[in-house]
Amino acid sequence: MNYRTYLWVWLGLILLTGTTVSVAGRELGGWAVLIALIIAGTKSGLILNYFMHLKSERLLIFKVIIPLVIAVFLVFILLTFSDVAFRGGMK
């Protein structure tokens, strides 16, 4: 892999970080968490594929790890949205 690819990935990460900061400053209601998680997932995918060199790994590692990662991700989403949905002040 050449340095040009790393530069493009790095610029993409910078752009996504700017997008995260921009979205955090807006009132998007319940969509804010989902948008932040999508951006974070995209950034982590770029880091895993290019900087941790998982793009060139064998397919077996993805068959084992991807279902586990998706399961953990779904648990985090479920816990986050249930926390937001049932959050209330004490009276």
List keywords for this structure.
3 helices; mainly alpha; single chain; flat; 91 residues; 77% helix
Describe it for me?
There is one protein chain. The protein has 91 residues and is mainly α. It has three helices and no strands. The chain has helices at residues 3-24, 31-51, 59-85.
Q: Topology of this structure?
A:
Elements: H1 3-24, H2 31-51, H3 59-85
**Overall pLDDT metric:** 85
Distance between the termini: 59 Å
Helix content percent band: over 70%
Low-confidence runs of at least 5 consecutive residues: none
Instruction: Count the DSSP helices.
Output: 3
Largest sheet: none
Q: Write down the overall geometry.
A: flat
Q: What's the alpha carbon Rg, rounded to whole Å?
A: 17 Å
What proportion strand? Answer: under 5%
> Based on DSSP secondary structure assignment, what is the total number of beta strands?
0
Q: Summarize the helix and strand pattern as letters.
A: HHH
Structural class: mainly alpha
Outline:
The chain has helices at residues 3-24, 31-51, 59-85.
